[in-house]
Amino acid sequence: MKIRSVVALTLVTLALLGLSSMAASADTRPLAPLPDAEMPDAAKVEIGKWMFFEKRLSGDGDRACADCHLPEQGWASSDALSIGYPGTLHYRNAKTVMNVRFAKYFYWDGRLDGGNDLATQARDSMTDSHFMAADGRIMGQRMKQIPGYVEMFKAAYGGEPHFGLIIKALGDFEKTLVSKNVPFDNYLKGDTSALSAQAKQGLDLFQGKANCIQCHDGFMLSDGEPHALGVAVNPDIFEVKRYTTLRSQQMFLGTPNYRNLKSDPGFFATEKNNKYFGSFVTPSLREVSKTAPYMHNGMLPTLEAVVDFYNEGGGQATNKDPVIAPLGLSAGEKAALVAFLESLSGDDLGYRSADFTEDKRPPYQLLQWVGQDN
Amino acid sequence: MISRVGGVLAIAALALFLGAPALAGTAKQVIQDGKKFFEIDGELFPALEALGPPPIPKDNPQSVDANGWPLTDDPKVKLGYFLFFEPALSGDGSVSCQTCHVQGAGWALNSAISRSYPGQSHWRNSQSVVNAAYMSKLFWDGHTASLETQAPSAAKGLAGNGKQDMMTARLTVVPEYVEMFTAAFGSANNPVHDAWRALSAFERTLTSTDSPIDQYLRGDEDALDEAQLRGMDLFNGKARCIMCHNGKLASDEKFYNLGLPRQPLFSNIAKNQIGFRSQNYGAGLPEEMFRKTKSDLGLYHRTHNHEDAGLFRTQPLRFIEYTPPYYHNGVMDDLYEVVEFYNQGGGEDYVQKDFGYSTKTDRLKELNLTEDEIDDLVVFLEGFSGPEVLMEIPILPKPPARISVN
To answer: In this structure, are residues B280 and B266 in contact, taking their beta carbons and an 8 Å threshold?
Structure first.
């Protein structure tokens, strides 16, 4: 049954590709539905869910993962540039956590390998000075003094919470954040009515005239590689708190001349090769209609603006990827592309930040010492 | 400790040196190699001495006057003065040195347990910065040996949660700081490292060396009144204080378990317990000890030697009037309570109670001090405090709203 469905999907995909007016280059992978993926143990996922919304997992006890990755905003943020740890602001747009288990690299600058190692990403974001500035030893102790959580950890892991388990549980929760009932996936699986005629036209353009598939390929609609597009610098990165974070993080990453940056070096900071200056890892397009604004710095407010940007051949950069060139799309073609992009979002998973407010989270409680009265 | 050797010159009357009144003293003074000691239980302890200028480390020089006193117009000191009040040197930009070292509270904090960054609790009492310049062991467990290493331990640790890169960036976006670092250190290339050095230079100007006891020790016989002189004799003799509170600092900078009462804040407030227990966890206490540890294990955190459990560094006594509550866990509110505690020979050894072996010092014995003697001792202890050290709080330089890069 399973093998048969895979073969069928492949055939459908190939058929779709055959429709393109311009064949994608040989090294792009066909678009495909999200693969089935094994879901972690439900008890661990349940812990991870609470940890994801838990502000006490930051130094000041005032930042949760969910503060920048809001379920109501596509598990990203509607801010062009993200907030940060109290006293800081960020200089990049918060990416969605949806489908992150399939990411090749984490973060816009690809500084962490993806490969399903979500716990490491959680650790980095929890301990980075501009995100959550947490001391793992203290976080473990904080969770140990929340009996509601301790019981959950004991049931799921057979022991009390500690930092290692906290980040693993977060990773396990994130593994469940996978798009569900996506029109485009349904279409690829054979439901020809899942896409409107306009969206189908958009798909054709995506793989043909607009050539999006050059970078947005495979089942993630991302090659996971860095590209320079020449997106304009967001002038807000020069606000002192954002620029301070830029300077701090680029110092940490070992970027040369980090005090005099006029723009975000992006993947350069990871690779230290000039050709990558200002390049960023291609984001997945899944759930993209829910995660405006767009690009690493939120400079493009809508999908229409994104399509216009590419139609004009991207922005200004000496190292701009040569694949980015004016497209000559008509208004109708642009609208069709947007309609296709909108078909990449699945159902709301049903999580609400309001269900995890302070009054709903279990409180700190005193612990008894072993063998002694308090 | 100093062993007694031959050639000891015992002085019968203290009057010669100390101008003591003509009464039968309890202290037994000894002169050895021209230096003055007091003898208790057959051991010699260095007499109190007036404080001179603080030592200045060769790797962090600062300008001094002809007598060796640090000058306040040194660019390092000026920078350190600003940085002492500067919350940029913390994780969220809200905590400065003065958050826990308030000049109106003797450059300490008038609460049993010090402050931590928002969302977190501390676990030890904040100590005065005044005269910290003289000490070779900072923090209650002596885990740093210089002001230059004390500052980052606090700013990056439980007090400030500051991160090196963010603090660096915060300082470098303030043009006035770039200028000040350049003036003091030749560049602003390594401002966080240099911030600790500037803070240390500033702290070396925060001294209190003109207390009544200092004046007396320099030869002003009228600096202490009769009651204080009686108290001093008790200090050096019957009350056995000099055994640990001796020499220039009134501290031997060694470590003792006194059997102090437990701090109930760790048993009745969950957030404080988190601060307490996370420090034990961070220090790598073995599982069983972690579960049982109800009181701060002090020096054990550094050495992991069981005989060091519950030991804390002897506190210097100058400026003490301004810095209640007392001890590492702030369990005593005033000097009467402190003296009463010693009069009873200290307290129950909680290491014994928790772990079944004792580390309490055998120097503490019931003293049998009378009410009058306790009064005398307290007024003498009050003589360790000169005038308050007060200064204007600086108006801090601010970064521009936007950064322009050339």
So the answer is: no
Q: Which residues face B366 on adjacent strands?
A: B344
Strand partners, A243: none
Rounded to a whole number, what is the distance in Å from the CA of A223 to chain B's nearest CA?
32
User: DSSP of B10-27, one letter per residue?
Assistant: E-S-THHHH---SS--S-
Q: Whole domain around residue B193: which residue ranges?
A: 75-203
Give the three-state DSSP class for B46. strand
- B52-92 pLDDT, tens digit per residue, is 999 999 999 999 999 999 999 999 999 999 999 999 999 99
Q: Is residue B151 situated within a structural domain? A: yes
Does the fold of domain A44-179 match that of domain A2-36+181-342? yes
Q: Which helix (H) or strand (E) holds A106?
A: strand A105-106
Which residues share a beta bridge with B29? B38
Peptide bond just before B325 cis, omega within 30 deg: yes
**Residue B133's CATH number:** 1.10.760.10
By Cβ distance, the residue of B278, B291, B402 closest to A238 is B402
Distances (CA, A) of A76 to A39, A276, A288, B143, B334: 22, 25, 10, 44, 55
**CATH code given to domain A2-36+181-342:** 1.10.760.10
CATH for A44-179 is 1.10.760.10
Asked whether the beta carbons of residue B169 and residue A366 sit closer than 8 angstroms, the reply is no
Q: What angle do CA A145, A364, B99 make, to 5 degrees?
A: 100
Which residue, B83, B194, B199, B219, is CA-closest to B150?
B199
The whole-number pLDDT of residue B303 equals 96
Enumerate residues 124 to 143 of chain A having a beta carbon within 8 A of any beta carbon in chain B.
129-130, 133, 135, 137-138, 140-142
Q: What was the pLDDT predicted at A115?
A: 77
Per-domain residue ranges of chain A: 2-36+181-342, 44-179
- Judge whether B135 lies within some domain: yes
| CB of B274 less than 8 A from some CB of A | yes
3-state secondary structure of A142: helix
Q: Please give the angle made by the CA atoms of A69, A74 and A80, to the nearest 5 degrees.
A: 65
Among the partner residues B161, B170, B271, nearest to A133 by beta-carbon distance: B161
Q: What is the mean pLDDT of residues B30-54?
A: 97
Which residue out of A160, A233, A239, A243 would a mutagenesis test of the B interface target, given it has the greatest number of B Cβ atoms within 10 Å?
A: A243
What is the separation, in whole angstroms, between the first and last Cα of chain A? Answer: 61
Q: Look at chain B and report how many structural domains it folds into.
A: 1
What is the mean predicted confidence (pLDDT) over B211-227? 97
| pLDDT confidence band for A374 (50 / 70 / 90) | low
Instruction: Tell me the pLDDT band of B287, cut-offs 50, 70 and 90.
Output: confident
**How many CA atoms within 13 Å lie on the side-chain side of B300?**
24
On whether the CB atoms of residues A195 and A343 are closer than 8 A, the answer is yes
Q: Check CB contact under 8 Å for B402 and A262.
A: no
Nearest residue of A to residue B87, measured between CA atoms: A87
For chain A, give percent helix, strand, coil, nearest 5: 45, 5, 50
Contact call for A88 and B173, based on CB within 8 A:
no
ipTM of the predicted structure? 0.90
Query: Which residues of B fall within a CB distance of 8 Å from A257?
Result: none
Q: Is the pLDDT reported for residue B3 higher than 80?
A: no
Mean pLDDT for B241-260 is: 98
Neighbouring residues of B28: CB distance < 8 A, sequence distance ≥ 6: B10, B38, B39, B40, B237
Residue B338 falls within a domain, yes or no? no
Domain annotation covers residue B100: yes
Task: State pLDDT tens for residues A57-75.
Answer: 999 999 999 999 999 999 9
Residue A233, CA distances (Å) to A89, A92, B13, B53 in order: 16, 11, 83, 55
The answer to whether the CB atoms of A251 and B402 lie below 8 A apart is no
d(CA A30, CA B27): 94
